[in-house]
């Protein structure tokens, strides 16, 4: 599967789950913002290629992706509940908890996880990038409605999709082009709303 297809698929669940929950927490997006929210789900599906597999059933990878998306959704909602006085400590606590959860598996399968120093530096850089992204998300939830911050954050797959198309010279399908234009439209609607 091309790079530009695999990332957007699970993000649909991580964008839609919190929006439903957020409405129960008191957010009331404007009509324009709701239109942006509604455009986001098909945009993400189209960015991933917009394909469906009939009769194949859910593969283990699809189930894992959906479970991971629900985890991201819970993380988004949980971070947004932190008070402004807590600073970045909610992100720090989440990163530490992630390491604690992963460590037993690494210890159990130690030889399989041995990496070169370069790969370890890359892994730390990726983790730092994720922490920065979560910190910026936390900041966004303090400046605007959670429903809007969640949906805007869920549009991140458009970036690696564009990179895959531009840097790896992957061919863009009509569906992906419509998805990218729709994602841009959703961003405008959410920003104006």
TrEMBL record:
It comes from the Bacteria. Keywords: Membrane, Transmembrane, Transmembrane helix. InterPro entries: EamA_dom, EmrE-like. It holds the Pfam family EamA. The chain crosses the membrane at residues 31-49, 61-82, 88-107, 119-140, 146-168. Residues 66-191 form the EamA domain. Belongs to the EamA transporter family. This is DMT family transporter. It comes from Streptomyces ureilyticus.
